[in-house]
Amino acid sequence: MLPAARRQLPAYLEDLAHLVAIDSGSHSPDGVNRVADWVQNRLHRLGFATQRIAPPPTHAATAGDTLIARRAGRLGPEAGGRRILLAAHMDTVFEDGTAAQRPFRLAGSIAHGPGVSDDKGGLLAGLAALQILHDAEIDDHAEIVFLATPDEEIGSPTSRPVIESTALGMHYALALECARENGDLVIARKGVADFRLTVTGRAAHAGIEPERGANAALAAAHLTVVLQNLNGQWDDVTVNVGVIRAGDRANIVCSYAELRVEVRAATLAGIRRVGDAITRAARHTTVPGTRIDVEQLDLCAPMEDTDRSRRMLAHAQDEARALGLDIGATATGGVGDANFIAGTGLPVLDGLGPVGGADHSPGEWLDTTTVPARVALLAALIARLGDARQ
What we know:
Strand content: 15-25%
Oligomer: single chain
């Protein structure tokens, strides 16, 4: 597979330049759909049946389509065939016009441009691996599903239901974000829960009768200290009071305040533990006459480090050694579509794209010398996982 991946490198770079030249920010549906058109055409050529799922009408003006492609193999599940999900995203964090301002360029072997690493390089790595399998007529699997989402960079608000429903019934998931800078795969991602804490006090004239008021801003300030002090109490847990809003005028004792709090943890149990701690803290306001209400706004489950994902990692490391690579695995606090897949109970391995870095910045880069080996590794891993008889 490595010689085949090396032969593909010039075409890969040409394709990468083409996709990077398309502005496909999360809120640019026309650009995202141009990428989807291109990917869909490539998948048709590889024998995949494709489906485009438009966003709900409420998001039609701001979100692109989700693309799902399926190709059956020659082994049914009863014969040892496995269903494998490949997941990548088509959107970037950049505004329209960025591709013209910072066009694709090669500085030696390092590629630059908006989205070159996150995630157009990984998206193309998946297509290149499928091309190798297609050309070699390797189809010892039950089914391969390729999922390309339009809004990963903003939390997948329109594609999350599609991601979760697509993951059902699969055996393995391989997420195509690019590898860490040292080549590591990603074995775990923290989950995220967002909370809104509403503090209700009592208004009063701040100069004439402040004693009749109950200052919600003061209660919110004390609560912020309590919540920030939850950091360090548990391993792999972070708590951040990111937004505080309070009051309207300086001459009124503040009667209302709002805190927005983000919790990240490596396990779902950790998120629940911190949620309970937040609720307990809210019951004990330090300012008489104030009340604190807690609302959990959202939950993105962690991509947990499990025995099943570790077995996938062991297969990947075996295939990597055959290619002369020594790869490890790491955990990250960042959230991606892999979290939603893992939340369905499916084992996931992430970071299977080429090596890149400086995501979301003008310095974003991709090391093109890593492309052939990483594409060959991905193709070999798909072939290995697809056949349970191996």
